Amino acid sequence: MIKKNSLFSVIFLLLITKILGFWKLRIFAQLFGASHELDIFWAAFTIPDIIFMVLIGGSINAAIIPILTDELYDKGKSSFNLLFKHLTSAFFGLSVLFISLAFIFAPQLTSWIVSDASASMIFNMTSRITESDYTLFLNLFRIGLLSPLFLSVSGFVTAFLQVRKQFFVTSLAPLFYNLAMIVGTYILVVYFDFGVTAIAISAVLGSILHLLVQIPSLSKFYKEKNGELLNFKAIILDSNVIKAFKLAYPRMLGVLGEQFNTVVNTFISFTLSAGTLSAYRFAFSLHMFPINIIGSAIAQVALPDLAKYSCKNEEDNFRKMLNDSIQFSLYLIFPIVAIMLVLRLPIVRLIYGTGAFDWQDTLLTAWSLALLSLSVVGQTVVQILLRAFYALKDTWRPLLAIMVGIVVNLLGAFLLTNFFSHYYDWKPILDQVFVQIAQANGDGVLSVLKSFLKDIFKWSTTRGESDLAVGGLALSLSLAYFFQMIVSGYMLNKKKKVLSWEETIYPSLLKLLNTLIMIVGMYLVFRLFDFQLDTSRTVYVLILTIVTSIYGGVSYLIGSKIFSPKEFAKAESLIKGILIRLKLKEK
C-alpha cells in the first residue's frame, strides 16, 4: 500500500522542483534570449547528459534499487552497505572511463560538429555552429563533463536512500540542483560577466549540491566497517555487481534507442516551419508537468516496495502494490488530462501569451498540447509498469516494449506530420460526412468515406502546406506510449499474473467514464463563460480558467465517490487533514 505522507511530500517537492525548472528557463531567456550562444550551451551539454542517462540514470531503477533491496532483506544492513560500496565504485569507474574518453576526444568531436551540417540537427540546434564557435563549444563541453561525474555518485546515494524509504531528502536533491542553476547563473552573468559559461559552471555546482544535500542522511544509515579500503578484485568478482551490469545493459540499450528516437524526431521536425517547431517544444514542456510530478512520484515510492515483495515472493502484496499504484496515478492524472484538453487555449495564453508569442503561436501550441495530453496516461502507467519489471529483475522485456514504442513513434511522426499537413484538404470532407449523418441523410456518405479512405495514403506520404503538421509529432508520441503501455502490460502478465479485469481494467474504465462526464460539464461551463467574458483581457482568461477548473475538480471529486470510492476515501482524508492543519494554525 502506498504511504500517503511519503507520496504527497514527494509530489509537493517535485512540484516545487518543476516550478523552479520553469523559473530556470525563464532566467536563461531573460539573460540570453533565444540566442546562438545559448544554442551552443544546449548542444555542448547533450553528450554529458547522454553519458549520465545511459550509464547511470537508466541503471538506477532498472538494476541498482532492486538488487540493493534484495541484499537488505536477504542478508541485512552490513552486507547491504558493502554492496552499495561495490556498486557505486564499479559504476563510478565506468563513468570516469567514458567521461575521460569524451574529454580526450572533445577537440575531434567539436571539429566534426563544426564541419558537418547534419550535426546541427542531431544536437537540436536552431542555427549552425561555425569555426568561430569552436573554442566556446569545446570549453562548455569539457566543463559539462564534470556534471555527470558528481551526479553518478549522487544517483547511487539516491538509490541507497530510496531503498531505506528516505524519499523526502532524495526529492530535495533535484530541487537544490535547480536552485544552484538559477542563483549561480544569475550571479555569474550579472556580477561577473561570465556569459553562457555561467550556466555550465552552475550546472556543475548544482550536481555537487545534488550530492551534498543527501550526505547527512546517508551518514545516518551507511556505517563503514573498520574503515575498509576498496578491494578492486572483490568488486570485480562480486556476483551482484556482475548481475547489476547484466540487468542494466538492456536498459542502457533502451536509453540509447530513446536518444535515437529523439534524433530522428528532430530531423523530421526540421522539415516543419520554425514557428511550428517552437509550438511543439512549448506544448511538450507543459504536458510533461503532471508526468514528472505525479507519475514520477508514484513510481519512485512504489519501486522499493515492489522490489521487497518480489524478493520475499509475496505475490499478493506485489499485485496489490502495483494495482494500487496504477489506480491512484490514473485517479490523479485523468482530471489533469481533462483540464489540458478543455482549457488548452487559456492555459497556453496564460503561460506563454506575452511579447512576441502571438495568436497563431497560441493556436499551434494548444493544438499540440491537446494531442500530447493523450500521452500523459500512457507515460504515467508505463513508468509504473517498468518499475514492476525492474523489481522482478527483468530488463529485456521492457526493452522490447520500448522498441515497439520507438517504431510506432518513428512511423507515426513521418505519416502523421504528412497527414496533418493536409488538414485543410480532408477536414471539409469529414465535416460533410458529419453534416449528412446529423441530418439523417445517408445519401452519398459511403461514397464520400470511400474517397476519403482512398486519399489517406496520398495525404500520409506527401507533405502539404498546413502548419498543423506539428500535430503529427504530438499524436505519434501519444500512440507510441499507448502501444508501449499495452505491450508492457501484456508481457508483464505473461511473466507474472498481476493485472486483471477486476483490479486493473474495470476500475480504470470507471475512472475514464468519470473523466468523460467531467469533460462534458467543463466544456459547457467553458463555452457559457467564454460568451459572457471579454477573453481578449488576461484577467478574464484567468477567471474563465479558474472557474472551469474548479467546476471540473468538484465534478470529478463527486463522481469519484461513485466510480472510485477507494481513491475518493484517500482524497477525502487528505482534504480533511489539510483543513485540520489550517484550523490549528488559525488558533
From TrEMBL:
Keyword S-adenosyl-L-methionine set for record: no
Gene Ontology terms, MF aspect: lipid-linked peptidoglycan transporter activity
Keywords, sorted A to Z: Cell membrane, Cell shape, Membrane, Peptidoglycan synthesis, Transmembrane, Transmembrane helix
Name of one Pfam family that matches: MurJ
Ranges that cross the membrane: 40-69, 90-114, 134-160, 167-188, 194-213, 328-352, 364-386, 398-420, 468-492, 504-526, 538-558
Any one GO CC term of the record: plasma membrane
Source organism, top-level taxon: Bacteria
Localization annotation: Cell membrane
UniProt KW Acetylation keyword: no
Primary location group: membrane
GO annotation (BP), single: lipid translocation
Membrane-topology annotation of the record: Multi-pass membrane protein
Protein name as annotated: Putative peptidoglycan lipid II flippase MurJ
The species this protein was found in: candidate division WS6 bacterium GW2011_GWB1_33_6
